[in-house]
Amino acid sequence: MSLEDKIKATAKNIEGKVQEAVGDLTGNPQNQAEGKAKQVEAAVQHTVENVKDAVKKTID
């Protein structure tokens, strides 16, 4: 996983957690949902990069 992609995915995950927490504090279900969606997107990005790494190791 490239370091840049890992940093982007981690940042998106943190952003999602913060947005979800703000939604929890304010009682805003839209913020909660958007925050959770960002966390899922970050998890998918991590998974894609891990698969790329595994394929590269197999080829090498």
Could you explain the architecture of this structure?
There is one protein chain. 92% of the residues lie in helices and 0% in strands. α1 runs antiparallel to α2 (29-59). It is elongated, with a radius of gyration of 14 Å. By secondary structure, it is mainly alpha-helical.
Could you give a quick summary of the protein structure above?
The protein is mainly α and 60 residues long.
Count of DSSP helices? 2
Biggest sheet, open or closed, and with what strands and sense? Answer: none
User: Span from first to last CA?
Assistant: 15 Å
Q: How much β-strand is present in the residues?
A: under 5%
Shape annotation: elongated
Helix residue percentage: over 70%
How many distinct beta strands? 0
Secondary structure elements and pairings:
Elements: H1 3-26, H2 29-59
Helix pairs in contact: 1-2
Keywords:
mainly alpha, elongated
